[in-house]
Amino acid sequence: EGGLPQVLIQKQDEEQRIVMGAVYVPNVVDSHGDYATADTIRQACYEFMAKGDTTAVDIMHDNVRYGLPIVECFISRKGDPDFPIEGTWVVTVHIPDDDIWSLVKTQKLN
Question: pTM higher than 0.85 for the full model?
């Protein structure tokens, strides 16, 4: 509660141990049956980042923090090749933990 919605990994960089994914896509129904406009998503992103709680990352909504810092956060713009729906909230997370990184590499965690 109060953390990020579910994020599916869309890109990863093995050397840097980072993963990137969409937190919320405008006008697409989420796992709770809700949806949000691009303006609502932008506001939620800005409010989340203003709190400065960039380690509020859990796994599969288990409400446990694993020391996985958000190292990048942005709202996608028109023409983004990785996140083509303009207004998508995107985060990049660094995964220093060997066990968690192993789950990402073997696609047991996505």
Answer: no
Nearest to 106 by CA among 4, 5, 9: 9
Question: Which of helix, strand or coil describes residue 50?
Answer: helix
Phi, psi for 4 (deg, rounded to 5): -80, 150
* Residue 106 in tokens: 């073997």
CA 1 vs. chain centroid, Å, equals 15
In degrees to the nearest 10, what's the CA dihedral of 20, 25, 28, 30? 60
Query: Where do the DSSP E strands lie in the chain?
Result: 8-13, 18-24, 70-75, 89-94
pLDDT tens per residue across span 76-103: 999 999 999 999 999 999 999 999 999 9
Give the residue ranges of DSSP H helices in the chain. Answer: 38-51, 98-105
Is the distance from CB of 95 to CB of 86 less than 8 angstroms?
A: no
